[in-house]
Description:
Elements: H1 9-18, E1 26-27, H2 29-36, H3 40-52, E2 56-58, E3 64-66, H4 68-77, H5 81-98, E4 101-108, E5 111-118, E6 133-135, H6 140-147, H7 151-158, H8 173-186, E7 189-192, E8 199-207, E9 213-222, H9 231-244
Antiparallel strand pairs: 1-3, 2-3, 4-5, 4-9, 5-6, 7-8, 8-9
Amino acid sequence: MKAPHQESVLSRAARILEAFSQEEPALTVSEIARRTGLHVATASRLVGELVAHGFLGRDDDRRVRIGVRLWELAVRASPVLSLREVAMPFMEGVHDVVGHHVQLSVLDGDEVLFLERLSAPNAVVNYTRIAGRLPLYASSSGLVLLAHGPADLRERLLAGPLTAYTPTTPATPSRLRAILADVRKQGYAYCPGYVHEDALGVAAPVRGADGRVLAALSVIVPNDAGAQAVVPVVRTAARGVARALGAPTGREGPAA
C-alpha cells in the first residue's frame, strides 16, 4: 500500500466510499477517517467534495451516507442491468411457486454477489441481501458459480481455510471438491443447512450467449423433505433466463 502522501486523491475517495456497509450505511466524518486511515481534515475535505458532486449525502444530523447520484451512475452503466431485467419475470414465476426467497447472483472476486432478491413476510431465514455477499463454498449460488468458474479460483479456495457455519457446511477440501463435481454433473447445487440449519438452498446456472455461466438463480426454502420438489422449478427458470439471453440449448447439464 502506498504511503498516505503518495496515494492519489482518487484512491482516497475510493476508500471513503468503501467505508460504508449495509450494516452501517451512515457514518460521521470521524468514523470515516478512522476506517480509512485518513487524517480527519483530509477526510472532511474529500467528503465535502463528494457531497458536492452528489456521490455522498448528509442526513439532518450531519451523518454521511452514499448519495443518490452514485446509485444513478452505477445503475445507468451497470453491466448486470440487462441480466437482472431479463431474469426478473422468471424469478417472479419461481417466487409464485415456492413462496420463499428467490435470488440472482454473479461471481465477484472470491465471493458471490447478490444482484436481486424476491422474498415474502413469512419466508425462511436468509442471510443474503441485495448487493450482499457470501463465501462461494457455503451457498448454493456460490457453489454453482465456483463449479463453473476459473480453475485457479477453485484451487485457491480449496487450499483453505474454510469456515464451517453449520455442521453441514462443506468446510474440508475433499468434501468441497466432491460437491463441486456433483454440481457440474447434476446441473444444480442442493445445499441443506450449509449457512443456517433451518434453510436449504437450491441453485442452477444461467448461461450467456457464448455458453459460459454468467450467473446463478437460486431459492432459499425450509430445510425439510419438501425441498427436493423445487429443484425442477429452479432449473427450468434458469434455462428460461439463459434462452432469453441467447444461450445455446443443450448446455444446462443432465436432467433432474
